[in-house]
Design goal:
35% of the residues are buried. The chain is globular. The protein has helices at residues 5-19, 24-34, 44-56, 61-69, 80-93, 99-111, 122-132, 139-152, 158-173, 182-204. It has ten helices and no strands. The chain is 65% helix and 0% strand. By secondary structure, the chain is mostly helical.
Length: 215
């Protein structure tokens, strides 16, 4: 059974209070952001999904905090959204975490602009992999994700949307690796490449409605 939105919201609030004790108001403010009405994909379900993936990857606490903030500002305007989210992290966490930890959270938020952390940046790799993990979901879940993202770009005409998705999927498929942690590569790399290739090929074939099909 799917978790109801209010149940999910309560679970996330409890998780925040465990992660950053004594500051429930920050969690409340962030969840207000994550539940803004214009968010179809980049909402609290994406937040919860990414936090669960971080757990699979063995993330440290600051990585969870960064994931809470990484889409705190979201208007489908990269990199402005991520830059504004990093600013928000610095503002809300000032005096809550030590300054060096606040800066680390902001840095990890900015990793999600390109999902290309430097070699050896284990924290950045885990945050990046968690953010992209949905690419390696079951085909039906991937298709629903694409539909949710499409809803956030409702202003685009279908040909423009298709061109953008063809470019996006092609760019990802051209990467040597989508997932930068050993665990992420093992769990999601092959499935993500299948999903991306299916979407790209479907759109190139001129029948984008087939993205709704289950492989």
């Amino acid at each position: 059974m799917l978790e109801q939105p209010e149940d999910l919201r309560r679970r996330l609030q409890a998780a925040w209070e465990k992660l950053v004790p004594g500051h429930p108001e920050i969690g409340v403010q962030l969840l207000e952001r994550w539940n803004e009405p214009h968010r179809d994909y980049h909402g609290q379900t994406h937040l919860a999904y990414g936090l669960d993936r971080l757990e699979e990857l063995g993330a440290a606490p600051l990585e969870y905090v960064a994931f809470w903030f990484h889409d705190a500002v979201h208007h489908n305007d990269t990199p402005s959204d991520e830059l504004a989210s990093a600013v928000m992290a610095r503002e809300l966490l000032e005096g809550v975490l030590p300054p060096d930890q606040v800066e680390e959270v902001a840095r990890l938020v900015l990793v999600t602009i390109n999902h290309d952390p430097r070699p050896g940046d284990g924290a950045g790799a885990r945050v990046s992999d968690a953010d992209l993990a949905v690419l390696g979901a079951e085909p039906s879940d991937y298709a629903r994700t694409v539909q949710s993202i499409r809803a956030e770009f409702s202003q685009l005409a279908e040909p423009e949307w298709d061109r953008g998705r063809i470019a996006f999927t092609g760019a990802l498929l051209n990467r040597p690796r989508l997932f930068l942690t050993p665990e992420g590569e093992r769990l999601w790399e092959a499935a993500a490449r299948r999903n991306l290739a299916h979407e790209r090929d479907t759109r190139l074939a001129g029948d984008p409605s087939r993205i709704k099909d289950v492989l």
